[in-house]
Specification:
The chain contains no helices and 8 strands. It has an 8-stranded antiparallel barrel. By secondary structure, it is mainly beta.
Length: 99
C-alpha cells in the first residue's frame, strides 16, 4: 500500500507499506534526508511503530510522526516535537482534477 503524507513542517512524500495479517509483521519504505530507508515493525501499545536504525516512524489512524533516537530524551523528539511535525495522509488527485 502506498500512502502520501503531508507534514506540518511542509514535507510531502510517499510511504510504501507491506504488512502481513497472518504474522503481524510489516515493513515500510520511507524517504529520509534524500535516501529511502527500510523500516520494520516493532512492538507498539498503540498504532503501528516501525524502526530503522535511529529512526522511528509511528503511525496511528491517518497521521504519523518521525522520531530520531539520537536526539533528546524520550519520547525521542527534536526540539520538543517530531522531526517532521505531525504528518497526515493526503489523497492522491491527478493533476488537473477538481477538488
Amino acid at each position: 500500500q502506498r500512502i502520501q503524507y503531508q507534514c506540518s513542517k511542509g514535507e510531502r512524500f510517499y510511504v510504501d507499506y507491506w504488512n502481513s495479517s497472518a504474522s503481524g509483521q510489516g515493513i515500510a519504505l520511507l524517504p529520509i534526508e534524500g535516501q529511502t530507508n527500510l523500516f520494520v515493525t516493532v512492538l507498539s501499545a498503540s498504532g503501528a511503530r516501525y524502526q530503522s536504525g535511529q529512526w522511528t516512524w509511528w503511525s496511528k489512524g491517518n497521521q504519523a510522526e518521525l522520531y530520531d533516537a539520537m536526539s533528546a530524551a524520550p519520547p525521542k523528539k527534536v526540539d520538543g516535537e517530531s522531526v517532521l511535525g505531525v504528518c497526515r495522509e493526503k489523497e492522491d488527485k491527478p493533476q488537473g482534477s477538481k477538488p
